[in-house]
Structure formats: C-alpha cells, structure tokens
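Hey, can you fold this one?
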Amino acid sequence: MAGSTQTKFAFASIAVAACLIAVPMAASAQSGIASIYSGGLTANGEHASAAGMTAAHRTLPFGTMVRVTNQSTGRSVVVRINDRGPFVRGRIIDVMPAAARALGFDGLTNVTLDVVGRRG
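Sure. Predicted structure:
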C-alpha cells in the first residue's frame, strides 16, 4: 500500500513539473492581430499614455515585457503589459499609439509576440 502511495505521488510530481515547464514556454510566443488603443485608467491602475510603450493582453501578467513584431514590415518593439484586453474576437494584443507608430501600422496588423522578460 505504501508503495502505491509513493508511486502516485511520483507521477503527480512529474505531472506538476511538466505543467510548470510547459506553460511558460507555451505562453511565450503567439501570432495574431494587433490593434491600437488609448486613454483612461489601465487595469493595473496606471494612467494610459499614448506616448507609452505599453500594451494590453488578456492573460500575461502585468509587467511582462513582450517583443511585438509586425509581420508585414518586420519592425519590432518591446512593450510592457499593463492592461487587460483586447476584448475583440481574433485580436491578441492592443498597443498604445507610440508602439503602433514604431511598428509601422495604424488600425490592425498581423504580429508575433515573444515574451522577453518581466519588470516588477
């Protein structure tokens, strides 16, 4: 009986470790549509600044630094996640106008996201 409990614990430990390893890797790269937004108070309590290199993402933790690459132009910029969104189906990130200008788009564009770090 004790061996059975140890075996179950070992398998559970391996499963938990696999989840902890797999989740950050899976969340580190995404492709989809980016849009531009601005104004108001962000979900983390900051005032949104059109000149800021910040963005909204549905699930990444606040403070996550993300390289956004415009697939059309090849331009990329690093933004800090400080808000939640986008809340429009099919979009993966909302960037501030300054970040959109640096990426070379207005409106919508296809992008790739890569997590590059975290800032407190």
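The two ends are 47 Å apart (CA to CA). Let me know if you want another pass with a different chain boundary.
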